[in-house]
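Entry 14. Structure prediction run on the chain below.
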Amino acid sequence: MSTYIPSAREISRKWFVVDASGKTLGRLATEAASVLTGKRNPKYTPFLDMGDHVIVINAAKVRLTGLKSQSKTYRRYTGFPGGLREESFTRLMERRPEKVVEEAIKGMLPKTKLGRKMATKLNVYRDDRHPHAAQKPEPLEVSA
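Output returned:
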């Protein structure tokens, strides 16, 4: 008995749109990461990119629970000595709310070449407008 491995011709990708308004960041990120990795697909294979495309709209309206909105910080390193930069959640939400949602979702993907390829299928927008209407995205419900 041979092992079944789906070929590239068998992979059909769907487009899903997620409305982030009023949703908790972590719950939204887990659902989106699950769709991007392809774990909802019955032909899921861990070493192949079987995932679908995800469009997240209204990223500026996402929320955190508890006191995380006051205490959460985002760190990045410029690559130069003394180049550690920190930014609070509230400041980053004012400046670039898309970045907050992207960081949360990408953090739940594999840290490999395959994970970076999966992350290219993620599109995050600040408000409810997106240029992907031609792909006919289906709504994806996230539990509140």
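The CA atoms of residues 43 and 120 lie 21 Å apart.
Filed with the rest of this week's runs.
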